[in-house]
Design a protein that fits this description.
The complex is a heterodimer of chains A (230) and B (279). Chain A has 230 residues and is an alpha/beta fold. Helix content of chain A is 32%, strand content 22%. The longest helix of chain B has 22 residues. Classes of the chains: A alpha/beta (230), B alpha/beta (279).
Chain lengths: 230, 279
């Protein structure tokens, strides 16, 4: 029997709920959030490609846990969660640093901000992701091209809890690579996670920050769930 | 109150100067200039050319009432694409710059566009964030940004209190409302919008509306003054009540199949009746 990866994940999640196993909590309690180590939103100085994305992450996680830009290198390894919103380019030094953080156990979220980039600029983005962070991606996909529209305007996340978050018109899908697909736009994979050393790399091909910024409660719950796994 | 009409109403084959002559002859005091909507006033129009346009307006015995644009329908401040958004902000900046060159103190902006792709909450936040720095620029130039209520077309800020809250969130006296009394359709009453927004009204667009046509048919809902469903005595009274004494700007659709210039005369006369209160 042929079964798509998406169908398999759907059946698995359904089976868990049928046998009565608890699905992840939709709302983390204040007590649980207090267990979070420091987290940091990176790369927001200069001219970010989607400024509201960083604003969204800043607004969504507890302020007392926040380290402020500029990037204070010595303090970052103590962070359990590092988020790089709407990333376009990353230099070799910063990429190596992120890798060291993951090797020490941190969770690093890389959110692509290149969905609207023109062809030449996107090639540069793709090359940097591949060579510096070992994230191969495919060309951006316009979910709303030529007047067509997706069946639903949502990206469906399957990990760490199920969530529906508005798409951001364009996605930069991950290419085939080791790891687990954690989000789909229809049949299109848009995010994955994989272990790197003692830590975790999460790649988001569809920005979540703008939904956080616009007050999407489900996006906030999802991010809290990610933070709690870190 | 003074009367104005848009230069985008000038018949296409007439040209700017002939159009200005008609506007003056019909009895208007000023002209609303539409950036990007007419061949003589584009984003690429230089400052020197803008000054030349101003000379032509003044030579015709008119002044520029305000600078409007329809460019934000294609390039809205609420766009997700950062490049489009930057272009939208640049359009507003150019409106501010040219308003100063024209010697007027108001511009019209269509602030955001809700679509099935770009949802309301995003549009709201993005417009507030965009208008804060633009409002500061406008204030420094002595210009007010009037966000137009294009209720049905924008699917945004559909009620007067919602619009009020939006302006509160922008929180800059240089950002107000360019109130179009024809755009409210059957979702409310223009006179109530006037009363609620009062001193925040930067300019007033005039046209009438045929509410029964709704928005789903293939016929326009808009029509000439006094032919539609607007309660003009109530609108006039509300303008008096809030002390509005600024520009009234006709924004008609060019509906005359023959003698298109006649629409200018008819509109100017109707506006005179409205201003005089003989309704």
């Amino acid at each position: 029997m042929e079964i798509t990866r998406r169908e398999f994940l759907g059946y698995t999640a359904g089976a868990i709920s049928v046998v009565g196993l608890p699905l992840p909590e939709s709302t983390p309690t204040a007590t649980r959030l207090r267990k979070l180590d420091k987290w940091q939103v990176l790369g927001t100085t200069g001219r970010p490609s989607i400024p509201e994305s960083a604003l969204g992450y800043h607004a969504a996680l507890p302020q007392e846990r926040q380290r402020v830009d500029p990037w204070e290198r010595p303090s970052v390894p103590s962070c359990s969660l590092l988020i790089y919103p709407s990333l376009l380019v990353i230099n070799q030094k910063d990429a190596a640093f992120l890798t060291r953080c993951m090797n020490r156990g941190a969770t690093v979220v890389i959110e692509s901000g290149a969905g609207f980039m023109k062809h030449f600029a996107f090639r540069w983005h793709r090359r940097q992701l591949r060579e510096r962070l070992q994230i191969p991606v495919t060309a951006p996909v316009d979910l709303w091209s030529n007047g067509s529209r997706p069946s639903t305007p949502y990206v469906e996340y399957t990990w760490p809890q199920r969530a529906r978050i508005r798409d951001f018109s364009r996605v930069v899908p991950p290419a085939e690579q080791p790891g687990e697909i954690i989000a789909w736009a229809g049949e299109l994979p848009v995010a994955f996670k994989r272990r790197v050393g003692a830590g975790t790399l999460i790649y988001l091909g569809s920005p979540v920050g703008p939904a956080l910024w616009a007050g999407d409660v489900e996006a906030k719950r999802w991010l809290h769930a990610v933070a709690l796994t870190a | 109150m003074k009367k104005s009409i848009g230069d985008n109403m000038i018949p296409k084959d007439w040209g700017f100067e002939r159009g200005l002559e008609l506007i003056k002859k019909a009895g208007f005091d000023g002209v609303e200039l539409w950036l990007g909507d007419v061949p003589w006033f584009q984003m690429a129009t230089t400052d020197a050319q803008v000054r030349d346009l101003r000379r032509k307006v003044e030579n015709a015995g008119l002044v520029v009432s305000n600078v409007s644009t329809g460019l934000h329908w294609a390039s809205p401040l609420s766009a997700r694409d950062p490049t489009v958004r930057a272009q939208a902000a640049r359009i507003v900046e150019r409106q501010i710059e040219t308003a100063t060159l024209f010697g007027t103190d108001a511009i019209l902006v269509v602030a955001g566009l809700v679509t099935d792709e770009v949802p309301y909450n995003e549009v709201y936040q993005r417009c507030v964030e965009a208008l804060k720095p633009l409002g500061e620029k406008a204030a420094r130039a002595g210009v007010r940004i009037g966000c137009e209520n294009c209720n049905s077309e924008q699917r945004f800020l559909l009620s007067p209190r919602e619009f009020w809250q939006f302006l509160n969130d922008v929180n800059n006296p240089a950002v107000g409302i360019h109130l179009d009394v024809g755009n409210i359709h059957d979702t409310g009453f223009a006179e109530q919008w006037i009363e609620i927004h009062g001193p925040r009204i930067t300019r007033v667009h005039l046209k009438d509306v045929l509410k029964h046509r709704g928005r789903s048919g293939d016929q326009s809902v808009y029509t000439n003054l006094f032919l539609g469903d607007n309660n003009w005595p109530a609108i006039r009274a509300a303008l008096t009540k809030v002390g509005y004494d600024g520009w009234l700007i006709a924004e008609m659709e060019a509906r005359y199949r023959y003698a298109p210039d006649q629409q200018f005369y008819d509109t100017a006369q109707a506006m005179d009746r409205l201003i005089s209160g003989r309704l």
